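USER: For my understanding, would you kindly supply a protein sequence with its structure tokens?

ASSISTANT:
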Amino acid sequence: MEGAADARVKSVPSGAPRDADCASLSVMSNRPAPTAFEFFAGGGLAGLGLAAGGRGFRTVFANDLCPAKARGFAANHDVAPVVGDVWDLTPADLPGRPDLCWASSPCQDVSLAGARGGLEARRSGAFWGFWRLMRGLDAEGRGPRVVVVENVIGLLTSGDGADFTAVCTAMAEAGYRVGALEMDAAHWLPQSRPRLFIVGVRGDGAPEGTGPDAVFHSARLVAAHARLPGVAKDAWAWWRLPAPPRRNLDLEAVLQPDAAVDWFAPDETQRLLALLAPLHRARLDAAVAAGRRTVGAAFRRVRVERGEKVQRLELRFDGLAGCLRTPSGGSSRQYVVVCQDGAVRARRLTGRECARLMGVGDDYVLPSSQSAALKLMGDAVAVPVVRALTEGLLSPALGDGAERAA
């Protein structure tokens, strides 16, 4: 249900996510749910995955720099996030002792699509503001048993690999066993969205393999591991997760009915299709010639051809949407292209459809502005991916003897 996400944002959060799974799992276990802090929380999708997976984590603190995202979070959770720069927080602002701390730190400066400034750049350098808080909690005996840093896969190679090394080394020096997984939302949802999850665990219980798993440890991750210095390599773990189930959704399954959305006029559709490169035009022609209804996703990108920058429309009919991005991400506003009865129609992907592509239920309150909804979803982490990580690794890492927040 779209609507203005106008819930009041408080300075001191309390409560738990509105997620039935969290409550039911807590009752089943007859013990308090483990607690989580969410940093760079956005709309709180990580918390939805944490709450739904395993024994169910309860978010008791959240923070984001963006007031609009914080309003989106507050509209969908009982926790009211603290709005502000993570560098302005101190351990005194953080309640109790968390079992887990999650950080989806800004990715623009380490993204493969960005300027690649690395962790020294202003936005991605926010990781160090987060890590300063983790060390402060440690100094007070309140450090979390588990830490998760989620980012784009560009973190593996940004700064010639120095950024990934810095994060892993920081965790290792703080006494964490460290490992990383590359997880693509396409295993669970009709969206191609690979993301990197660096997980630090104190204590035993987290499932480990004897070496890399091809599903979650890509060649680039294996190469990044090989570059680690001794302290990080000695603390390294090849975290093991169950193989993902066969994805049972394709793009059309999450789209709104044709009659419920606005389509481009024929001339606007033709102007859009004129941006197709020959290979993508051939894909479109083949889909039209097939005669049956065929649904695809498309987005615009700037490519260099013959030394010049050219705007191109890139089209795919593999049942997946491309990776959702924020409105400032160039190709963020994706298109739906439908071939049927020899004709082609096109329109923009809606905010609600983007939310579904992130694994969010239709009861999630989106901002009324399409641009704001796209920004909220484009900066988020896919819920089923977090759920799989929680069930397969994070909950087992805590074990039966997990310490609870004070």
